[in-house]
Design brief:
mainly alpha
């Protein structure tokens, strides 16, 4: 029995790409660092970590569950765990429920405002999974889901909402929406056949890539504005400019007719951006 449990847990963690938590986690801690103007307390850091892992795991598993019929019909995703029957829907639902409860528990341990807002945050991240069925703005819903991370980190240590984390959250929204547009280039033909909505399926790859560039330009400006408003200094400014260069290079790696380096652009460069900005914020505010 224990072997079966650990085998299914391994499959679930691979299914939700647990390593991609790196996209959102640095921004949650950026919000906490900015709110504390230094290091949050050890309990705060622990509960932020648990809440982020719980929310992200629940949201990704929910997305895989909702999209399982679509994934089975799409050649690119047909080998995922649920379409192949490697994991049951029942186990996936249990995983979603447990991680949702973990998130709600951790958020509730932080402060009353986190406890109040946590269920609404879950609704946002779950609702995203349905948006591709009726609107091409689904990319922005995903961006909003991840854009909650810095706001959540800020609220976790301050117990209030402020302009600075909203600006950082907006930058994250634009960043995520931009790279999700690029990622959806892989499924243009399938999305059109299945009646799904995305910018590439609606407007075509060329126009969508131009929009993604504008979104990433706005994201880069938002990252710089965050550092300027927070008074983070030259180290963070250099990191924000480097993040802008990474985004520029991301668009140099792919074209509408050559997506062979999409995974390098999507996973490597975008993962580096969050880590770079998070570390720059940490060292800029180090006590």
């Amino acid at each position: 029995m224990p072997m079966v449990f650990f085998r299914e847990l391994k499959i679930l963690l691979e299914m939700i790409k647990i390593e991609h938590t790196v996209f959102a986690l640095p921004f949650a801690f950026m919000g906490a660092l900015l709110g504390a103007r230094g290091l949050p307390t050890a309990p705060q850091a622990f509960y932020i970590l648990v809440a982020m892992v719980g929310a992200r795991s629940a949201a990704m598993a929910f997305n895989r569950l909702v999209d399982a019929p679509l994934d089975a019909a799409n050649p690119r995703t047909a080998d995922r765990a649920l379409p192949r029957g490697l994991i049951s829907r029942r186990a996936t639902v249990a995983f979603i429920v447990l991680n949702s409860l973990l998130f709600l528990w951790a958020a509730g341990r932080l402060n009353p405002l986190c406890r109040t807002l946590a269920p609404f945050a879950l609704l946002v991240v779950f609702f995203y999974s349905y948006t591709k069925r009726f609107t091409w703005t689904s990319h922005f819903f995903l961006g909003a889901a991840l854009g909650l991370a810095p706001l959540g980190g800020w609220i976790a240590v301050t117990g209030e909402v402020a302009l600075l984390p909203l600006i950082l959250g907006a930058a994250v929204l634009l960043w995520v929406a931009g790279f999700d547009v690029l990622y959806s280039l892989q499924d243009v033909e399938f999305d059109r056949r299945a009646g799904l909505f995305s910018l590439p399926a609606s407007l075509g790859p060329e126009r969508s890539m131009k929009i993604a560039r504008l979104l990433h330009l706005g994201a880069a400006a938002g990252f710089v504005a965050t550092g300027w408003l927070a008074g983070l200094g030259r180290l963070y400014l250099a990191a924000a400019l480097a993040a802008g260069l990474f985004l520029w290079w991301e668009h140099r790696l792919i074209t509408p007719h050559d997506l062979s380096r999409l995974h390098q652009a999507f996973f490597t460069l975008n993962g580096l951006i969050g880590i770079l900005l998070g570390l720059a914020t940490l060292f800029s505010l180090w006590p």
